[in-house]
Specification:
heterodimer, A: 81 residues, alpha+beta, five-stranded mixed sheet, 3 helices, B: 148 residues, Aldehyde Oxidoreductase, domain 3, 34% helix
């Protein structure tokens, strides 16, 4: 699936998007997998409460099911307007 | 209904006139405009990042909900992304309704949702460094009053 990062999450991970081969069934499982990869992911995902997640461009939570997901995005709370 | 996410500046007067002119049977048009503020006195420019695709979907869903809840005649949302200087306009919302109460309330609803639920992020570039603008608890709390 495609994993996208925005704002300081993008800066900490060091790239805006990447293709990830995963068997994770929930967002939280995917985060655990990513954190185990490298320190920069650990830094980006250190505090789950500071993050928001969208699956296929719909806001959701870390328990969300990923079995049919094509695109997962991680970002800080939004500051539009 | 018109939703635009774009980098270039817009003209508030032109947009408002165009929006008002295309209404029929609508006695009230309310507009809100967000402007880049230099709170600390050292802001060089503000940069707005967004999530192309999701941004348009989220704004469209908010506008559709506002039209349903307040029986609006029309909604316009323009939101810029990219770099912008202090005093530049970031975004605008316009609502058209038969009476002003609905137009005002719907505009407030849209702004409250847009601040916390549309995927935009502001980064301030100041003379002494850059930093992401933190979301405010008040903005999140503001959503609760619109819950059905």
């Amino acid at each position: 699936m495609d994993v996208l990062y925005f704002a300081w999450v993008r800066e900490r991970v060091g790239l805006p998007r990447e293709r990830v081969e995963t068997t994770a069934t929930t967002v939280r499982d995917l985060v655990t997998e990513l954190k185990a990869r490298e320190a920069r992911y650990e830094a980006a995902f250190a505090d789950e409460r500071a993050l928001r997640v969208a699956v296929d461009q719909e806001l959701t939570d870390f328990d969300a099911d990923l079995s049919r997901a094509r695109e997962v995005a991680f970002f800080p709370p939004m500051t539009g307007g | 209904m018109e939703i635009r996410v774009e980098a270039h500046p817009f003209d508030l007067g032109t947009e408002t006139n165009r929006f008002a002119a295309r209404q029929s049977d609508m006695g009230a048009v309310v507009t809100f405009t967000g402007i880049v503020r230099d709170v600390s006195g050292g802001l060089d420019y503000m940069e707005i990042e967004h999530y192309p695709g999701m941004t348009e979907k989220a704004l469209t869903a908010m506008a559709e909900e506002a039209v349903d809840r307040w029986d609006l005649g029309d909604v316009l949302i323009i939101h810029r992304h990219g770099p912008m200087r202090p005093d530049e306009m970031i975004m605008m919302v316009a609502t058209a309704a038969r009476h002003r109460g609905s137009a005002f309330e719907a505009a407030e609803f849209l702004m409250d949702y847009l601040k916390s639920r549309a995927p935009f992020w502001k980064k301030e570039h100041a003379v002494d460094g850059a930093g992401w603008v933190a979301a405010r608890d008040e903005d999140e709390d503001a959503l609760s009053r619109w819950e059905p």
